[in-house]
Model the fold of this input.
Amino acid sequence: MTNDSDLMPDMGQEDAFEVQMRGYSRRQVDEFVARTRSQIRDLEERLSRSLDETERVRLELSTARQDLSNKPAHEEISERVGQILKLAEDEAKAQRVRAQDEISKQRDDAKKETDRHRVEAREQTERMLTAAQEQSENAIAAARAEAEKLRNTARIESERAVGEATKEAEATLASAKAPPVTTGQSGASTC
Done:
C-alpha cells in the first residue's frame, strides 16, 4: 500500500502554503488539506481491500478451474443423475405453470367478484336514487296540495271577509243615506 506522500508528494509538508496578508485563510486551507488527506487515506484503504479481494477471487477462480479440469471420470455426473435432475427441473416448471394458472384464476375470480360488487352497488345506488326522487316528488306533491288547500281556504276566508265587509259597508252607507230622524220637532208640535 502506498502512503500519502507517494500519491501527492506536495501534500507531505505541513506548511505547504505560503502565509501572506492577502490570500486564503490559513485555517480553511489547513482544514481542506486535512479533509483531503483523510479522503485519500480512505480511498487507499478501499483500493487496498479491493485489490486483496480481487486477488482472493482470482485465486479461487484458478483453484475452481483446476478442480474442474482434474475431476476423474467416475466423479462426473452420471446419466441417471442427469435424468433425475432433468425430471426435477421439469416438475418445477410444471408446478410453476400450475401456480401461475392458479394465480391467474384467482385474479380473474377476484375481478369478477369486484365487478359483481360494483354492479350491485350501482344498482343499489340507482334504487336509492329512484326512491329518493319518488319521495321528493311525493313530498313536493304533498306540499303543493297543502299549499293549494291553504290558498283555497285563504281565498274562501277572504271572500267571506270581503262579503261581510261589503254588507257592513252597504249597511253603513244605507244608514248614512237615510234622512235623519228628528225627535225634537215632532214633540214640539204636539204640545
About this structure: Confidence is low (pLDDT under 50) at residues 1-11. Residues 79-177 form the longest helix (99 residues). The chain is about 80% helix and 0% strand.
